[in-house]
Design a protein that fits this description.
Elements (H helix, E strand, L loop, with lengths): L9 E2 L5 E2 L3 E3 L15 H12 L4 E3 L3 E2 L11 E2 L6 H11 L5 E7 L14 E2 L14 E2 L2 H21 L3 E6 L4 H6 L14 H4 L1 H14 L5 E6 L10 H14 L3 E5 L15 H6 L4 H8 L6 E4 L5 H9 L5 E4 L1 H5 L3 H7 L15 H4 L5 H13 L10 H9 L7
Parallel strand pairs: 3-4, 3-14, 4-7, 5-6, 5-7, 7-10, 8-9, 10-11, 11-12, 12-13, 13-14
Antiparallel strand pairs: 1-2
Helix pairs in contact: 1-2, 1-14, 2-3, 3-6
Length: 400
């Protein structure tokens, strides 16, 4: 048994104790039933991950509105219709002391046109791609309804037996769209000043807290910055994080970027940053000096040494990983026991620049690994990247 920082337990501000400092950050699974019900495949996947020893597992995006989805076959929690299935998910996942938290989300303008021909957002600023329809601005009554929906989903999480809930406030989804002046052009109380742009997420937190009480953990995933000119800046992020700290949040996860500027998957990082592993470490050091809320950093962690050093610095309280869990479902146990001290995922390079530069195969390749585990199979680190290309594009491998 290791004496690393990440193997130690941690007590959140609400009083809930987490068994270690390793967390699986949210990954969209895409294996729910078509109507949004948790499936047997999800039960299998999360049971496998629960046995893997992490302190916290965050679900992939759970949607608050069946008409607005991030992708097909995602879980939906509009009401208590699927409560029994969420209870099964919680029970199967948490048998070995791992905590399951529901990540709650709305895509806003970031819903592909084949799923959503009438997307909504803070404003009518569209995505720079024909894969997405032009959004319309939400009316104030709709904003208030959405705030209620986030609260309802958090209550579903609590009633199911899950141990927490997280607002997805990063990666360009709806909360992120309200925060960014690039996508929020409103002139009412929901737009303009940073205080107004942050109102949506703060009201969501209040709605959740009023429904779940003070002893149920609530967290948020938020961007360190959007990495786009005129968008949500590092300075603004620090201000919003201070607002969330004062509001009583139990855990703040820091990531970065949007799907237009995907800093969170490492496609934008300098080689020196990748070598250091913690992509957003400089930012979280600044945040730690400002707030007391526990902090989780996701993006780039691959080795026991880097995780231990980051936690030992005192700048963060949890290390988050996503993609290593797709290939190494036992990653937490192996880190804590010392059985393995580094977990590098394949580079997935095809040799075709126009494919590799976009990173278009990264997400589906990893989602295919989740689907394998949902069927009770082991991940396949040697899965052919061209097979993934042919499946998602319907095209044959190009001749190079």
């Amino acid at each position: 048994m290791s004496d690393h920082q990440f193997s130690k337990s941690y007590t959140l501000p609400c009083g809930v104790q987490v068994k270690n400092r390793i967390a699986k950050s949210a990954l969209s699974e895409g294996i729910a039933e078509p109507e949004g019900r948790p499936s047997e495949a999800l039960f299998n996947l999360y049971e496998r991950w629960g046995q893997g020893g992490a302190g916290i597992l965050f679900t992939g995006n759970v949607m608050v509105d069946k008409d607005h989805l991030v992708n097909a076959n995602v879980m939906i929690a509009e009401d208590e219709s699927f409560l029994d299935h969420y209870k099964t998910l919680a029970d199967r996942t948490q048998k070995d002391g791992t905590h399951l938290w529901m990540q709650i989300n709305h895509p806003g303008r970031q819903s592909p046109i084949y799923l959503d021909k009438a997307p909504v957002s803070a404003s009518d600023v569209g995505m720079p791609s024909r894969m997405y329809a032009q959004p319309r601005p939400l009316e104030e009554s709709e904003i208030e309804d959405l705030i209620e929906r986030y609260g309802t989903a958090a209550l579903v999480a609590k009633k199911s037996g899950m141990k927490g809930a997280q607002i997805h406030g990063a990666h360009g989804y709806l909360v992120s769209q309200f925060l960014s002046p690039l996508t929020n052009k409103r002139t009412d109380k929901w737009g303009g000043s940073l205080e107004n742009r942050a109102r949506f997420v703060l009201e969501i937190y209040k709605s959740m807290r009023s429904k779940v009480g003070s002893e149920f953990p609530l967290g948020i995933k938020i961007n360190s910055a959007d990495f786009q000119r005129g968008a949500f800046t590092e300075e603004e992020s620090m201000e919003v994080i201070q607002m969330l700290d004062e509001a009583g949040m139990d855990l703040i996860e820091v990531s970065g970027g949007t799907y237009e500027r995907a800093a969170m998957v490492g496609t934008m990082q300098k080689e020196s940053t990748k070598m250091r592993e913690a992509y957003f470490m400089d930012f979280i050091v600044k945040v730690r000096a400002l707030i007391k809320t526990p902090l989780m950093l996701t993006g780039g962690f691959r080795s026991a040494q880097a995780m231990n050093e980051a936690l030992a610095s005192g700048s963060l309280d949890f290390v988050g990983m996503g993609r290593p869990f797709c290939v190494f479902p036992n990653v937490a146990n192996d880190l804590i026991s010392g059985a393995q001290d580094a977990f590098h995922v394949p580079d997935l390079i095809t040799g075709v620049d126009k494919i590799d530069m976009t990173g278009m195969l990264q997400t589906p390749w990893h989602m295919f690994q989740l689907a394998r585990m949902g069927k009770g199979l082991d991940p396949d680190p040697d899965m052919d990247v061209w097979m993934v290309y042919e499946k998602i594009t319907g095209k044959k491998r190009p001749v190079v």
